[in-house]
Design brief:
about 525 residues, mainly alpha, Arc Repressor Mutant, subunit A, two-stranded antiparallel sheet, 22 helices, extended
Length: about 525
Amino acid sequence: MLPPVIQIPDKSTLPMDEQTHLRTRSYLVARHQHPAWKLLSATRGPLVLSCLQALMETNREEILFEDAQQMLTDILREHANSDDLKLSPDDPAADARKELRSWIRKGLIVERDGRLMATDALQKALAFVEGLDEKIMTSTASRLATVQREIENLETRLNPNAQSRADHIRRKIRDLEHEMADVEAGRFKVLEGAEAAEGIREVYNLATSLRADFRRVEDSYRDADRQLRQSIVSEQHHRGEIVDRLLDGHDTLLETAEGKVFHNFSEQLSRSIELDNMKHRLRTILKNPATRHALSRQQQDELRWLVIRLIQESAAVIRARARSEKDVKGFLKTGLAAENHRVGELLNGILNTALNIDWSSHKVRKGDTPLPPIAVAVSSLPLVERLRFKSATEEQAQGLELTDQGVNLDDVDEEFWRAFDGLDREALYQETLELLKVTDRPMSIGDLAAHLPPTHDLETIALWLAMSREAEVEITDDREAVDITDSNGHRLRFHVPQLALTRQDAEAIDWEL
């Protein structure tokens, strides 16, 4: 008798784990629907991402559609010969406009009145690309200490035992008293070196995540506004339901994690002293020598302007919220006016019918009417006033408050003066002309930089090149390297065209600086 044959099923016929199956389906859906994934996998995605990132660095709030189209046109023209990108060199401007319109339809960016606004999907794509070269370890010692501290605090808050909570508070008090005694005795450690850089990077990562939370709140308001507009246009909901949906959507959004973050920050806007303290602490951190090693120059600028950026992001959220309220308000007023108009037309029809009745007939006057007396008695008003209907009154426009407000210049923040720290083009032109007169010889860009160290590196070189172009100085294909030290002590090297600017060339320039 032969032994029974055991068949081993093929791996392809085994049922897939349910969790893996659902995760795979969600990834497939995100691959075809999420704008960030579409951008990262698109053939021209690197060009679009580079264009939008450059514009967002210079225009923090909104981007003009024309500016985005012009920059993307230049990028497409620069890479027109690339076989991988499949670009057409015939009309790059039309291709740029078509490319931007397609990403607007896909939800990567939002267009309002000719201006482009970034979404949370675009921020996620930028964060992913910037993180590709990030080699900083995330599981740092400070983060481990933070996790341990949060675990201890959460365990205490979840514990219903009052005695355990009291012991935890007494232990914290003893630790603080011991720490206070050490500080008063001069025994304390100042963070420096790798530990300070690690803490600064941790603060930067947390701070930049706040802007992403605000952007998600703004996207949620925009999505709610779109659904509200669809409800209004469909005419399937009366005015009470529209108002309920607006209020319920607002309450639901505030219950989310990012909604709570935005709500807490919006409450702090009314307490300016907390924001001022936050800006002061950020300035103190940025002055620490470890900041130069922990963050790049751009990251330092982002941290320096964090409070202002958060206020701008919150203003964008408030505008998105106000847009929905304005739509509902207009819908209510329009609906009220339409109802009043329909009632007026009905009354006019009744009155016109009444004019055609023969009121001289006693039988007609004493006959029954199909209209029951449902109106409220207003005998104090004339008949014409009772039957007259009125349209909805518009709110009067509020006048601008143009009162003078004085401020002490000593109280003005450093950021205000930094905004005026621009290149004095007229002064540099006169200094360059005076230098050429004194030396009385042709000078290149490197010679000018050696005698007049630039205070604004790129602007200074751009002005000297513009002077040479205006004077029609011969510019060859040869290049020279110009080394410059910026205001932060960093050495920069620029490769500029080789030219020779003379005193006669500079004096012959007639242009507006």
